[in-house]
Design goal:
With 72 residues, the protein is of the alpha+beta class. Helix content is 36%, strand content 11%. It starts with 12 loop residues before the first helix and ends in a 7-residue tail after the last strand.
Length: 72
């Protein structure tokens, strides 16, 4: 499951979905540092044929980043 890159706090599925749809990231519920979806995860999510599988597995494949990363 997804954890904060700063404090290793384990994120809930609900928090993961929130950060997944936020362009500005989300503060960690544990330590308050801003977390973003990693560029690697963003790349996976943009692949059309994996969209359905990715939606179902989203909470388990998300990696967070401590800084905002460009997609490419």
């Amino acid at each position: 499951m997804t954890t904060c890159t700063n404090c290793q706090h384990r994120w809930t599925k609900r928090d993961i979905w929130k950060v997944g749809f936020s362009k500005e990231g989300k503060d960690c519920p544990g330590c308050g540092t801003r977390q973003y979806i990693s560029a690697e995860t963003q790349g996976i999510m943009t692949l059309g044929f994996l969209s359905l599988i990715a939606i179902l597995l989203f909470p388990f494949i998300v990696k967070l980043s401590g800084e905002k990363e460009p997609l490419w």
